Amino acid sequence: MSASKPSPSGWALPGSRTYWRINIALFLAGFSTFSLLYCVQPLLPQFAQQFHVSPAASSLTLSLSTGCLAVAILCAGALAEGRDRRLVMFGSMTLAALCNLAAALLPDWHGLLLARALAGLSLGGVPAVAMAYLAEEIDPRGLGLSIGLYVSGTAFGGMAGRVLTSIIADVSSWHMAMGSLSVLCLVAAAGFALLLPPSRHAVRRQGLPLAEHLRIWQRQLRDPHLPLLFATGFLCMGVFVTVYNYAGFRLMAPPFDLSPTQIGLIFCAYVFGIASSSLAGGMADRLGQAPVLVAGVLTTAAGVLLSLLPNLAGAIGGIVLLTIGFFMAHSVASGWVGRMAGAHKGHAASLYLLAYYVGSSVLGSVGGWFWEHGGWGAVCAFALGALAIMLACALRLRAGARQAGSPAPGQATAPTQA
């Protein structure tokens, strides 16, 4: 590993010590965010049974967190324009872990929902700020790989959160499962604080009025391409969460009759997401974002179709393909937002992630209606309809990039100071 030295522009060079410190720290941030957010997903059948609620109602433990996170992201993105991004992310990671720990200790349904909602609010400082930090601090030649590695951290966190809680809940209780994960995430927050260098390119806009934030967001929503990326995030995440939410109910029922631990191990499919997100980021640097995004959408659709097979191999294979396609699409779309956003990367990232988590909250809960009224076939039809719209967005983005002459692969827009 080479010694740390700044590039002529002050960016962290690919391969430098600073570059890898940033990547490892953001990997920990992604791990903590997604493990805390999605640790309840394999526990939904247990919540439904213990608290006597429907599958759709049990999904509120996740949907409330993602819905509150969506709202918090807008505030966090604006706050980060005038604050130390490192401090914002560290505070968010720590508070969210403490709220999840409180959720593990509360015995009643409404207390659990309240604590999960507060955890979602607390996490708002991580996702929007992370992408903005990377876009500002990393040399453009390594930006795709860095964002891919950050998304890999979210994939690893999503996998670890689901698998660990499934196993611990099976041998102990869901209270112990959520509490153990919360302590692990507090350790991850400490490691993050020790590794991440302070922001060097963030423009500190202390006291930026609300009207100015609204004007920035309004300009970004009128951009010909950014709203298509926001819609992509909404649909991509909504499909992914819908399938994962109700796969557990399907696999616990005949003819599969799997135990919670066995279902949790299926979430090891996230390993493929870790690999595919990093690979997609590197491919986008070389080939451009549009073809990789289209490939991600088609791979996700293939996974949904494969899951329709009435056997365990089809169910598992479908989840694997869906995971690969989802992380390909999300890695490319989130990185593309940073490249297009110009001076206000934090605002654009907050809008993208607002759409992303609203998709998780809304479509993830709506999918419960399809499960209750039409079973797995209805859930898949719902997912494929959303993916068709997502493919149309990706093709429109590809056409727009060709007409406008998008930046050459690897040549991201430099951090701009306004």
TrEMBL record:
Keyword Protease: no
Alphabetical list of InterPro entries matching this protein: MFS, MFS_dom, MFS_trans_sf
CDD domains the UniProt entry points to: MFS_NepI_like
Listed GO CC annotations: plasma membrane
Any one GO MF annotation of this record: transmembrane transporter activity
Segment forming the signal sequence: none
Membrane topology of the entry: Multi-pass membrane protein
Keyword Iron-sulfur carried by entry: no
Domain Major facilitator superfamily (MFS) profile residues, every copy: 18-404
Keywords noted in UniProt: Cell membrane, Membrane, Transmembrane, Transmembrane helix, Transport
Subcellular compartments: Cell membrane
Parts of the chain that traverse the membrane: 20-44, 56-80, 87-107, 113-135, 147-168, 174-196, 226-247, 259-280, 292-309, 315-337, 349-370, 376-397
Any Pfam family hit: MFS_1
UniProt family annotation: Belongs to the major facilitator superfamily.
UniProt name for this protein: MFS transporter
Organism: Aquabacterium soli
